[in-house]
Design brief:
Two copies of one chain form a homodimer.
Chain A (H helix, E strand, L loop, with lengths): L9 H16 L6 H6 L5 H7 L3 H22 L5 H12 L6 H16 L4 H27 L8 H21 L5 H16 L7
Chain lengths: 201, 201
Amino acid sequence: MEFFEDASTTREEILAAAYEALCRHGYSDLTVEKIGDHFEKSTSLVYHHYDGKDELLLACLEFVLDRYDETFAEAESGEPRARLEEPLAVFLVSELPDEQFRFMRALVELRAQAAHDERYREYFTRSDRLFQARLTELVEAGVDAGAFRDVDPEAVAATIQTVLAGALVRTTTSNDDEWLEAVREEVIACLEARLYRPDGA
Amino acid sequence: MEFFEDASTTREEILAAAYEALCRHGYSDLTVEKIGDHFEKSTSLVYHHYDGKDELLLACLEFVLDRYDETFAEAESGEPRARLEEPLAVFLVSELPDEQFRFMRALVELRAQAAHDERYREYFTRSDRLFQARLTELVEAGVDAGAFRDVDPEAVAATIQTVLAGALVRTTTSNDDEWLEAVREEVIACLEARLYRPDGA
């Protein structure tokens, strides 16, 4: 619930309840009533602010995306390698914290809605572009600092993002997870072979 | 419909109808009645063979997985690099054939069911293991032939599979696809830097 620690307005409290209910029940079993159970005030207030489950969840996703982006922007500048490997250490690990795992599992369900719901498709298009831009900046910083070889930062960023998207879907929809640590090590070995300069910072 | 060209039994004809209806309507809008519309005989026969939509779709997935595996086993032995890059050429391309795109999009929806349905989770665990085993064999063959460096074949295979899974989910749930070709080129550049021996076949 770190995204919603400072929830102060009714709207933010509703979004916090939606997040909590989503992590708890997943998408397919979720109803506005169940979201209301996680909200201290009346469920009718939820209906007053949002037309339905999907409007509310999309607003919740927007809120979380904004917070992610703020966290990213606030991140202390560090060594390019360490900063690039940070998302790998967060997403390519088995034994994820329970809340993070549940949110990731719900994200996979929500993302699948994009197959038939244009609103989700627009959201995930936008969120992919944002992560692509942030990862690209990290690679560019490494190239500019002389720590990384002179690669196409967009292509490296897109590839890392695709690995993370694959790990997210695989880990939340399969009973196996021993492959995750192997993938993280292999991705780092690839970065060493392809991106990092031997003498780079 | 290449998987079902030789459909001869009633059961296979039902699976072919399920596949066709799934590609056409996607998972969330699919009903046994709609599957029956793609079946030449009576819809009641579908109910006679399968208890419901999910049982039928799971049987359809099993059928497709078996066909994939046969295709894989029958593949002519070729140069290790060319064989390893074959799945990249199939899945990491924009402008996918329409039927393949629709089936991949439905697969993403079906995979998301694993978040709350153990039967789908078991299926995708098994299908991931099968692709892992096949990709591992390809990497091992390259190592044995001296074309690839002495890497951990399981880790390389798991990483390629994760990239493919990520590409599949991203391409079917986003409006952008210009990143796909960049990812394929970057993955091949990584394989060149990390896996292929400069003098290898």
